[in-house]
Design goal:
Length: 566
């Protein structure tokens, strides 16, 4: 059995490229150096070392097990850095610790350096800038800190630069704009990378295909030069402090993913979303971005109407999110053109008028989020065509009429939220609630048969800290059964400790003689909590006729409160 400290996947890949004869004759020092490093590998379940013994010319060690201290030892460093012809160092997904050796900068022919997903500390050594042949540098997911070295601007052949999730706290150095060969740059989740994006970022880096800036402190506007980034596939800059208008993206014909949510983009003007028009404008641009499959603009300051042109992008297949903005007007009927879209989220805006019936043409929809708007009128009957729908949230609107019967027996439906509208009549059938993991209809004063169920579910949520949509629940176990199975003897295993004082929660988990020693106050708490759970279960019974009435539920809870404060 391998010890946990040595259970390391893909520990080492050192490769030398070139003709075998040349390696055997001219790189004897490199061969001996790597064989010395090989001696530090303690376990080799895949037979990689035997391969090395038989093929010295390749000088490759793959999938071995490296002693945790080998990275730090003088012996191992000497072994690595004497191999001056190394072209690939692959040490990703290990348990490497301490600082990155500055000696790495002496391996002049190195082309690939991957040390991602380790426990390395300290700063990125400036000597990395000496690796003039380097085309791939991946140091993401470590415990590094400090700034982005300006010396990285010397890497004239670099194509892939990944220095994400390592807590860098600096601006993007101007020298980075010298890296005209860059195709991928990832600075996501550094949390401290700040400042403005250089105005000529996309002009000086014309080959950029993927730029990741998520979860940082970058401010200012998106550079206008992005309008000419014709090779760009993905632009990810969510969770920053970007502001202002979004430049035209009409020329970005290869763009697949645009994630700029959770910032301060938009000015509150009616033309905030004009850049969307440029994405899907028909002649003369004719739907330029026909590769775009992800578009997320949520949680910004975008105002004005949604341009109908955006819905001509038939390539949108994963999700389109515009939630938590200030969009006004109606949802364009052209939304029905998105027949391949998986998720549509326009919630938390100021959209009004009827929900367009053309939404029913979005036959691939699995999630439809329209909560927190001013939509009115009935739920369109065309939604019956959405056979794959799993989440439907129309809460907090002004919708009216009866709840459509086609919502009955929807096997795929997991969440149905129709709360706080103006629906009337009866909830069509209990099957609406049995098939969905969670269904909510509270806040519809003229609706009969549904409020008590939602009230019961709410009680169970409050006192267990769990939701019907949690991953632990499935077809054979729902929230109600989870509570019923625990009552009365195992209540301590299901209760959420947050509503209770700490000492009360501890006593609820005690058994036998320990429980006998609890005082009267704590006994009453336990008894009252059990009663609350019984009310929640009774109100959310799967059979409507067997549910406790709302009047009886209120009376029972009032009695529980009085008992608790005695």
């Amino acid at each position: 059995m391998l010890s946990s400290s040595l259970r390391i996947n893909y520990i080492l890949l050192f490769s030398l490229f070139g003709h075998t004869a040349c390696l055997m004759r001219g790189n004897e020092t490199d061969k001996l150096a790597l064989l010395q490093f090989k001696s530090l590998i303690s376990e080799d379940p895949f037979g990689a070392l035997e391969f090395l013994e038989r093929h010295h010319s390749l000088l490759r060690v793959a999938c071995g097990h490296l002693q945790p201290e080998a990275w730090e030892s003088h012996r191992s460093r000497s072994a690595i850095f004497q191999a001056r012809s190394l072209k690939v160092i692959q040490l990703a997904h290990n348990h490497l610790v301490r600082e990155i050796p500055s000696e790495l900068g002496t391996i002049a022919k190195l082309e690939v350096l991957s040390i991602r997903n380790n426990y390395l500390t300290g700063e990125i050594p400036s000597s990395i800038g000496n690796l003039s042949s380097l085309h791939t540098l991946s140091a993401a997911i470590n415990h590094l800190h400090g700034s982005i070295p300006g010396s990285l601007g010397q890497l004239k052949k670099i194509r892939v630069l990944e220095i994400a999730a390592i807590n860098l706290s600096s601006t993007i150095p101007p020298s980075m704009l010298n890296l005209s060969t860059l195709t991928v740059i990832t600075l996501t989740s550094n949390h401290g990378t700040h400042g403005r994006l250089p105005t000529d970022l996309f002009t000086t880096l014309p080959n950029l295909q993927d730029i990741g800036l998520d979860a940082n402190l970058i401010s200012g506007s998106i550079p206008v030069s992005i309008s000419n980034a014709s090779n760009l596939l993905r632009f990810r800059a969510a969770w920053n402090k970007l502001s202002g208008t979004v430049p035209s993206l009409a020329k970005l014909s290869k763009l697949r993913s645009l994630l700029i949510f959770k910032s301060y983009l938009g000015t509150g003007a009616d033309n905030d979303l004009d850049f969307l028009s440029s994405l899907g404008e028909i002649p003369p641009i004719l739907g330029k971005l026909q590769a775009l499959n992800v578009l997320s603009l949520c949680a910004n300051n975008f105002s004005g109407p949604i341009p109908p042109e955006i819905f001509y992008l038939s390539s949108l297949s994963i999700f389109f999110a515009l939630s938590r903005n200030s969009s006004v007007g109606f949802l364009p009927a052209e939304v029905g053109k998105l027949k391949n879209l998986g998720a549509l989220d326009v919630s938390e805006n100021m959209l009004s008028n009827d929900i367009p019936g053309t939404v029913g043409a979005c036959i691939s929809l699995e999630q439809l989020h329209m909560a927190g708007n001013n939509f009115q009128g009935p739920i369109p009957s065309t939604l019956i065509s959405l056979k794959s729908l799993q989440w439907l949230d129309l809460s907090r609107n002004n919708l009216s009429g009866e709840i459509p019967r086609f919502l009955e027996g929807r096997d795929m439906l997991q969440l149905l939220n129709l709360s706080y509208n103006n629906f009337e009549g009866m909830v069509p059938s209990d099957r609406v609630f049995n098939n969905a993991s969670a269904a909510f209809v509270t806040g519809n004063d003229k609706l009969c048969g549904g409020d008590v169920f939602s009230f019961g579910i709410l009680l169970l949520e409050l006192f267990t800290g769990k939701r019907p949509t949690d991953e632990m629940f499935n077809e054979s176990l729902n929230l109600q059964n989870f509570v019923k199975k625990a009552l009365p003897g195992q209540m301590g295993e299901i209760i959420d400790p947050m509503p209770l004082e700490e000492d009360e929660y501890i006593d609820l988990t005690m058994k036998g003689n320990d429980q006998d020693r609890t005082n009267n106050r704590k006994s009453r708490v336990k008894e009252c909590l059990a009663s609350v759970f019984h009310v929640g279960v009774a109100c959310s019974n799967e059979q409507p006729k067997e549910r406790m009435s709302i009047a009886d539920a209120v009376a029972e809870l009032s009695s529980i409160r009085n008992k608790l404060v005695e």
